[in-house]
Amino acid sequence: MVTNNGIVYLIALPLIGSLLLLLLGRKADKWGHLLATALSASSFAVGLFQLSEMLSRETENRPVTQKLFNWISVGSFNVDASLLLDQLSICFVLLITGVGTLIHIYSISYMSHDKDRRRFFAYLNLFIAAMLLLVLGDSYLNLYVGWEGVGLASYLLIGFWNQKQAYATASKKAFVMNRIGDMGLSFAIMIAFASLGTVSFSGVKEQAHYASEATMTAIGVALLIAAVGKSAQFPLQAWLGDAMAGPTPVSALIHAATMVTAGVYLIVRSNFVFEAAPTAQLLVLIVGAITLMFGAIVGTAKDDIKKVLAASTMSQIGYMILGAGLGPAGYAFAIMHLLTHGFFKAGMFLGAGSVMHGMNDEVNMRKYGALRKFMPITFITFGLGYLAIIGVPPFAGFYSKDMIIETAFNAGGLKGILLGSTALLGAAITAFYMTRVMILTFTSPKRWDEDQHPHESPILMWAPMAILAIGSVTSGFLLSRGNALKHWLEPLFEEHGEHQELLAPIVVSGLTLLMVAIGVASAVIKYQLSDVDEVAPESVSTFTRFARRDLLQDDINEALFMRPGQAITSALVKIDERVVDGAVRGIGKIAIGSGAQLRKVQTGYVRSYAALILVGAVALIAAIWVVTQ
After folding, report:
1. Are residues 583 and 507 in the same domain?
2. 358 in helix, strand or coil?
3. Average pLDDT for residues 578-592, to the nearest whole number?
4. What are the Cα distances from residue 580, in Å, to 351, 397, 447, 587, 600?
5. Are residue 619 and residue 488 in the same domain, yes or no?
6. Is 539 a member of any domain?
7. What mean pLDDT do residues 359-373 have?
8. Which three-class secondary structure state does DSSP give residue 66?
9. Residue 243 counted as domain residue
10. Are residues 165 and 16 in the same domain?
11. pLDDT grade, residue 553 (50/70/90)?
């Protein structure tokens, strides 16, 4: 393995920016945002340099490491604080720093009137640094540090406007639900340490060939729980919609390009675990299939533009998880969809922020309409992202999503038919709800009040949107041309035999485009060719009511966990008060009562003491007499 001492600069630059802005306080208000953006861009430049260096080496020498220091050394167990930059992590490095820098630039204008802009940029830099540590750590323990750092940064960013109670609650909800998932990663590390004696990626990979299937299944399930929490997958998906409470750039950074993809990274990085644990791998498939449908259905019923995009993110991550669960045949396509999604979803989130900027922070799409005339750049850039996500050729999503659908069908047997059909149906629903967003926002008749004056955003906002739109158009073609990304990642995965072909690629593409056309047509008929109510109608189907309430995810969590948890807590409090505290108080009362009784003996009268001495002496003489008889 080649050693490279420059990897640490990727993390150090944004971390230094975050620390400086937090420590200098108000002194950095005037230039803090510029420093943070420059350091994020510098990290991206370092990433490009590392990529060029990697391309100049032979395939077997492309992964590089850097040891920072010896972290844990106990007996034969050693963990170094080390970084690993290989073909997989460099993809994430460029996505995190590239898209992250564009979001920094966008935020300069978007947050220009916020008195705490400097602190906001400090949190952005902290998030970038933590996410980079997550994908560059060479062991599960190093990854865990970045994993928790991302959780902290996301909590700070989602609750940035915590003076609003709803926003503070949303940040706590995201934090708590992520902690539930994080327990999975903790258990995986502990099981690996206890059973395999190592927590490094290379060590676990080596031991996986000798460990029992039960051990690897336990590690795999624990890792899946972690991925489910961080990537907002079923059944820990309830936090994602509420997390839209933060500033819109936060939504683009956390929920489109980086944090929610960490679960996909964890599963793909741990491919050797799931290859050795078929049961855990099957669970990955089930989670991905359920979530891609769950998010798509929720997206059809939301009127808040950001919450529609959040549901869409949940669904698209479901596609990635599904691809990752398909094993070596699907790993590269899961990462490809992750990368293309980073472009078009970040672009659409920033586009949503642009719409809100021009509409006095209004998020209800039923109060939009005809904005294409007033916000032409936002309309075009958002529209290109829309074409990418629904999978219209030659836009990015066509290449990445189609490959996941095709690989799902080729999984074979009933499993392949079920997974492929689910993915196809998800594509149709995606086309429906995303077309609904386009119509309600840009092409339907206006429904906003006369006192609103929609206008295009400044260049610092639309320039990043334009760059992301270019990625929405070109990234899929570039990554799939000659199977470029697949060949790039191949050295990290072990292929297992030939893959069967249930449906030819042209057939899958034809079926997918047919389903997309059905979804688009349905939305056009319902929303473009019909009048749109300015207020969501109350008389809707039971299914729509459930979808509006996120398919009752909060109700179910409340019934299964919150209420029973409150009851258990209340019972424990009563036990503590009545049994534990009661016992302590009882002992105290006994001591006080005994003292009060003994106090009566201490009268202070000499005659009483003399009488007691006499009685004692007589009793003692009597006792001696009885014993000696």
Report:
1. no
2. helix
3. 85
4. 58, 61, 63, 11, 31
5. no
6. no
7. 92
8. strand
9. yes
10. yes
11. confident
Claim to verify: residue 367 and residue 241 sit in the same structural domain: yes
**The domain boundary residue, chosen from 534, 549, 567:** 534
For 429, the token pair is 């629903």
457 touches 379 (CB < 8 A): no
Alpha-helical (H) ranges within 25-63 are: 32-55
Chain segment 34-49, per-residue pLDDT in tens: 999 999 999 999 999 9
- Asked if residue 476 and residue 573 are part of one domain, the reply reads no
The pLDDT score that the predictor gives to residue 573 is 87
> What pTM was estimated for this model as a whole?
0.90
Contacts of 454 (CB under 8 A, 6+ apart): 358, 359, 371, 374, 375, 448
N- to C-terminal Cα distance for the chain?
Answer: 97
Question: How do strand 2-3 and strand 64-74 relate by DSSP bridges?
Answer: parallel
Whether residue 372 is contained in a domain is answered as yes
- Pairing verdict, β 77-85 and 64-74: antiparallel
What pLDDT does 627 receive? 81
Reduced 3-state DSSP string for 390-440: HCCCCCHHHHHHHHHHHHHHCCCHHHHHHHHHHHHHHHHHHHHHHHHHHHH
In whole angstroms, what is the distance from residue 138 CA to residue 269 CA? 10
Contact between 361 and 353 under an 8 Å Cβ cutoff? The reply is no
Across the beta sheet with 2-3, the strand order is 2-3, 64-74, 77-85
Q: What is the mean pLDDT of residues 548-577?
A: 84
Question: In sequence order, which residues have a C-beta less than 8 Å from that of residue 226 and are 6 or more positions away?
Answer: 147, 181, 182, 184, 185, 188, 263, 266
The mean pLDDT value of the chain amounts to 91
Token pair of 563 as six digits: 């209420």
Same domain, yes or no, for 107 and 26? yes
**What is the domain range of residue 454?**
2-534
pLDDT at 257: 62
Q: Distance of CA 376 to CAs 351, 360, 373, 462, Å?
A: 11, 18, 6, 10
Query: What pLDDT sits at residue 253?
Result: 86
Residue carrying structure tokens 């994430």: 92
Does any domain span residue 543? no
Residue 171: CB partners within 8 Å, gap ≥ 6? 155, 156, 158, 159, 162, 243, 245, 246
> Same domain for 529 and 565?
no
Is residue 465 a contact partner of residue 337, using CB atoms and an 8 Å limit?
no
Query: Which residue's entry shows tokens 């070109």?
Result: 474
3-state secondary structure at position 176: helix
Q: Can you state the percent helix, strand and coil of the chain, rounding each to 5?
A: 75, 5, 20
Cis status of the peptide bond prior to 394, with omega within 30 of 0: yes
Task: Let me know whether 488 and 621 are in one domain.
Answer: no
Q: How many domains does the chain have?
A: 2
C-alpha neighbours within 13 Å on the C-beta side of residue 583: 5
**CB contact at 8 A, 398 and 392:** yes
Predicted confidence band of residue 614 (pLDDT cuts 50, 70, 90): confident
- pLDDT of 580: 84
pLDDT digits (tens, 9 = 90+) for 407-429: 999 988 889 999 999 999 999 99
**Residue of 381, 313, 319, 384 whose CA lies nearest to 342:** 313
Task: Give residue 496's pLDDT.
Answer: 61
- In this prediction, residue 3 has a pLDDT band, given cuts at 50, 70 and 90, of confident
Transcribe 536-587 into DSSP letters: --S---HHHHHHHTGGGHHHHHIIIIIHHHHHHHHHHHHHIIIIIHHHHHHH
